[in-house]
Amino acid sequence: MTAALVELQGVRKVYRLGEVEVPALRGVDLRVAGRDFLALMGPSGSGKSTLLHILGLLDRPTAGKVLWAGEDVTKLDGGRLAELRGRRIGFVFQMFNLVPNLTALENVELPLIFLGLPPRERRRRAEEALMRLGLGDRLRHRPNQLSGGQQQRVALARALVTDPALLIADEPTGNLDSATGREILGIFADLNKQGRTIVLATHDPEAAEVAKVRLRLRDGQIVERT
Length: 226
Ligand code: ADP
Ligand code: MG
Prior knowledge:
Elements: E1 4-17, E2 20-33, E3 37-41, H1 48-55, E4 63-68, E5 71-72, H2 78-88, E6 89-93, H3 104-114, H4 119-132, H5 148-160, E7 166-170, H6 178-193, E8 197-201, H7 205-209, E9 213-218, E10 221-225
Parallel strand pairs: 3-8, 3-9, 6-7, 7-8
Antiparallel strand pairs: 1-2, 1-4, 4-5, 9-10
């Protein structure tokens, strides 16, 4: 068996809203190995985003463990966690989450600033990432000067510029028309063929089809694997 890149063991998540407790994950076990391409499916509210946030070290489980390369990272302090996240994980979101007053190039440079790369190296790598995604002629455009599909490609370039071990995408086609969505899914498929490890959440069966394995969530539990 291939060694797990990241593993969730008995992960539970309860959100607290004042007096009310909202259980979002109710005991999830999951292994992600290098070169996997997993799609999390399930209705709205089933826990997909919560699971991605915990997998991507953006949030901590209420109970259970998150192992990165075998190391339990649930007890790491915020700074160490942020560093691990910055080096190892790339995120893509439904709403692109680009910084509106920065150019495409500046957006893609951001994660490299956090890694402390010198300006010239940052620029070179950001340009390269954008060119690989077919945006070589859009480097100086701001998000509102780009189409949805182009914005999502900028977001992908930003996620990939650090060469992350894991690419996480939360409903990456949810805000795109179907033709553009298919184009973006094609990019995910190509990235995985090139060896990139991907976990994406979607409620679109067509989107889930590009993944190698589909996991269905219901009420915070994985109920089916196909
Ligand atoms: P999905 O991505 O599948 O739609 P989520 O992980 O966003 O599901 O949500 C799972 C459950 O947790 C839902 O009941 C949702 O209302 C709740 N939830 C999600 N985020 C929060 C939060 N920050 N505070 C309180 N409840 C939340
Ligand atoms: Mg969600």
